[in-house]
Amino acid sequence: MREYELTFIVSPSGEEDQLQATIERVSRLVAGVEGEVTDVQPWGRRRLAYPIRHQRDGYFVTLRLRCRAQATAEIERALGLTEEVLRHLLVRWEAA
């Protein structure tokens, strides 16, 4: 299994409960493809460089996870279909 870092932006239209529910949903998604989340780092609400879906702000969250390389396509597909997630970036984590 390889290590990855997933950063995603959650729409600010909801409340803190919606943010936690979205983080849990993404964690269950990773577990569903036989992966595991090793670290969760919520960055909080930040101003976006440009509007995304008419939103000027967003909640940034970074997850460190381990999964098979083939599972990353399924994770990215599901994140693209998740309405609360404005943008996401999944990169392979390489220790220095």
Folded structure, characterized:
- This protein is an alpha+beta fold and 96 residues long.
- The protein has 2 helices and 4 strands.
- The protein has helices at 16-32, 71-81; strands at 2-10, 36-52, 55-67, 85-92.
- The chain has a 4-stranded antiparallel sheet, with helices on one face.
- The radius of gyration is 13 Å and the shape is globular.
A few lines on this structure:
With 96 residues, this protein is of the alpha+beta class.
Topology readout:
Blueprint: E1 2-10, H1 16-32, E2 36-52, E3 55-67, H2 71-81, E4 85-92
The whole-angstrom Rg is: 13 Å
What is the 3D form? globular
Can you give the helix content as a percent range?
Answer: 25-40%
- Count the helices. How many? 2
Largest sheet: 4 strands, antiparallel
Number of strands: 4
- What fraction strand? over 45%
Query: Structural class of the secondary structure composition?
Result: alpha+beta
Residue runs with pLDDT of under 50 for 5 or more positions:
none
**H-E order:** EHEEHE
What's the rounded overall pLDDT mean? Answer: 92
Separation of the first and last Cα atoms: 18 Å
Major sheet: arrangement of strands: 2-3-1-4
Task: Considering the chains and any ligands shown, give keywords for the structure.
96 residues; alpha+beta; 4 strands
